[in-house]
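User: I'm curious whether this sequence folds into something compact or stays loose and floppy. Could you predict its structure so I can see for myself?
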Amino acid sequence: MGMAVGKKGVRSDINITPYIDILLVLLIIFMVSAPLKTHEEPIKVPKPASVTDPKNVKPDMIIVEMDLDHTLRINQQPITIDKLGSTLFEVFKRRLNRNMFIRGDAALPYGDVFKILDIAKHSGASDIALLQKGAPPQQAANPPKGGK
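Assistant: Here's the prediction. I'll summarize afterward.
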């Protein structure tokens, strides 16, 4: 804080130059350290494919589906969310292939799908792919343009 005594009286103002210097040093530190941050869970995004037929599903694949009304199915068999973890644990306990798919409607909130993802991870699933139903693959690959 500096004070200047002049003809018109005492004038006090704050010298903000040191604060700007500290701000710029912190900005540089955060810019350098941000790319070094790593994430624990690798994400593998599947490439969009043609609409799959239930007839073309391999028998060893685990597909958990969630509809808009939050009904769950494992390979077309209805199940409740309370029994999902124990059922997946029993399935993965007997298998070497611990891959699975979660298929949800495009209008579902991500938090609802994340609950299933969390249950599957704790049940022993190693690789989990997310699938979208309710929208054609072309629409998912090319988002609509425009401001509205």
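Summary: Strands lie at 2-6, 9-13, 63-66, 72-74, 77-79, 99-105, 127-133. The longest strand covers residues 99-105.
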